[in-house]
Design brief:
heterodimer; A: 384 residues; alpha/beta; Rossmann fold; 13 helices; 15 strands; 39% helix; B: 86 residues; Alpha-Beta Plaits; two-stranded antiparallel ribbon; elongated; binds iron/sulfur cluster; Pyruvate_synthase_PorA (chain A); oxidoreductase (chain A); pyruvate (chain A)
Chain lengths: 384, 86
């Protein structure tokens, strides 16, 4: 049913419909509205789940890990410093192959303290073995939670998943969301079937010690699961399209890329602005398009390469910076397109909540035209 | 061999995990000097020093890691640590 709702509340609602048996989270801006709403739902018996209150994010994800190992479907949500505090547990969750789904309401990392949006938090966990989905709007944020559970819990995958959506820009914005009913979600997402679980009558330990003789093989298994997840994501997206009419079967969404000379690559809410700017530039005869990355992990190398065939210049918008190197997405795209003859220019943009407007997108096209890139876009002149 | 997903394992793994391969020094028990005080069996962190039916104390080399604690505590200095030839 179409409803006007705040992004956080839409995500809380869909989390409820995914029927988590355990929720453990610690409130942090801008994620707070999600976990407040879920706490209310549990208190009001709208959601039959154990809501574990904890004293930190480290404990939150540790409780989730234990609950998932015991065979429960688990949900959590965090952002920024909260995710940073979960760093160690994130690696353990993936290594123990527990399919926890966690919303990341993207926010910058301190210092300096900032509660505003960029994607540094989830990007910094890119090597942890979690699938990473990025949503452009609240509808996509809502839908991706269902897909994330389906993919994560698939026995060919068994990896945890972040569903990332931009703090404030989406989380605190009211927009129409077509919210499925409980029955519709149940029809799409079957009950969780754990691969194996902790059971006092048939005890096992998980995440055991691996000597140098075996550790590398376990990392190889994680990488293989990531690669297998590509087909599972496509399948889950196609099934979703069949039931709900919204198609997420591609890991990369192409927007006006046919005959484009300059292609943007971006993730998350900025894609909406980029699409509008592209429409205006197309009206003015400029051949620009967008390849929107929906899954950053696994990185959609094959789809992205195909989507970009024929363009001469790629402008990557990175709402993060791998200090000492460049934007994380830009670096990967450069490696991916090495030798292709396509010029790849990287733009660090919108860090710490700096606003991006259509005119900024048009200005970046002008820079890309001149071959000027690999830079922070929109810096204050006093630092130059 | 397929690895267990998530490096999961059933209990009893320590018995299956033959830690003897870690050994650099091998304890050699000189039974002539032994007074059968049992200290070596008590302190061995692997629990792998066994008292035989004849009352002899012998290490199980399948598990002995060669830490040398038994040699250190033996009041008769009756345990020699010899470098393994590998
Ligand atoms: S060397 Fe260490 S492990 Fe081996 S028997 Fe002596 S105490 Fe036990
Ligand atoms: S500690 Fe030495 S003397 Fe005592 S039982 Fe062991 S080998 Fe024999």
């Amino acid at each position: 049913m179409l409803q006007i709702t705040e992004g956080s509340h839409a995500v809380a609602e869909i989390a409820k419909f995914c029927r988590p048996q355990v929720v453990a989270a610690y409130p942090i801006t801008p994620q707070t509205h999600i976990v407040e709403a879920l706490a209310d739902m549990v208190a009001n018996c709208e959601l039959d789940a154990e809501y574990i209150t904890v004293e930190s994010e480290f404990s939150a994800l540790s409780a989730c890990l234990g609950a998932s190992a015991a065979g429960s479907r688990v949900y959590s949500a965090t952002t920024s410093q909260g995710l940073a505090l979960m760093f160690e547990v994130c690696f353990n969750v993936a290594g123990m192959r527990q399919p926890i789904v966690m919303s990341i309401v993207n926010r910058s990392l301190g210092a300096p303290l900032s509660i505003w949006n960029d994607q540094q938090d989830s990007i910094s966990l890119r090597d942890s073995g979690w699938l990473q989905f990025y949503a452009e709007d609240n509808q996509e944020a809502t839908d991706l939670h269902m897909i994330a559970y389906k993919v994560a819990e698939d026995h060919d995958v068994l990896l945890p998943a972040f569903v990332c959506f931009d703090g404030f820009i989406l989380s605190h914005t009211y927009e129409p969301v077509d919210m499925p009913s409980q029955e519709e979600v149940d029809a799409y997402l079957p009950a969780f079937t754990p691969y194996h679980r902790l059971d006092a009558k048939d005890p096992i330990s998980m995440g055991m010690y691996a000597t140098p003789d075996y550790y590398m093989e376990f990392r190889y298994e994680l990488e293989r699961a990531m690669q297998r997840s590509i087909d599972v994501i496509k399948r889950a997206g196609a099934e979703f399209a069949e039931q709900f009419g919204r198609d997420y079967s591609a890991l990369v969404e192409s927007y006006r890329l046919d005959d484009a000379e300059i292609a943007f690559i971006a993730m998350g809410s900025i894609c909406g602005t980029v699409k509008d700017a592209i429409d205006e530039m197309r009206d003015a005869g400029k051949k620009v398009g967008l390849a929107k990355i929906r899954t950053y992990r696994p990185f959609p190398t094959e789809e992205l390469t195909r989507a970009l065939a024929g363009v001469s210049t790629v402008a990557v918008l990175d709402k993060n910076i791998s200090l000492g190197s460049g934007g994380a997405v830009g670096t990967e795209v450069k490696a991916m397109l090495a030798g292709s003859g396509i010029t790849v220019l990287d733009y660090i943009i919108a860090l710490g909540g700096r606003d991006v407007r259509k005119r900024d997108i048009a200005a970046i096209v002008d820079l890309a035209d001149k071959g000027v890139g690999d830079m922070f876009y929109g810096l204050r002149t006093e630092v130059l | 061999m397929a690895l267990n997903v998530g490096c999961a394992a059933r209990p009893g793994k320590a018995r299956k995990n033959k830690t003897g391969s870690w050994r650099v020094f091998r304890p050699v028990f000189e039974s002539e000097q032994c007074t059968k005080c049992g200290m070596c069996a008590l302190v061995c962190p692997e629990g792998c020093v066994i008292e035989t039916e004849e009352g002899e104390f012998v290490p199980d080399y399948e598990y002995c890691k060669g830490c040398g604690i038994c040699a250190e505590v033996c009041p008769k200095k009756g345990i020699r640590m010899e470098q393994e030839e590998k």
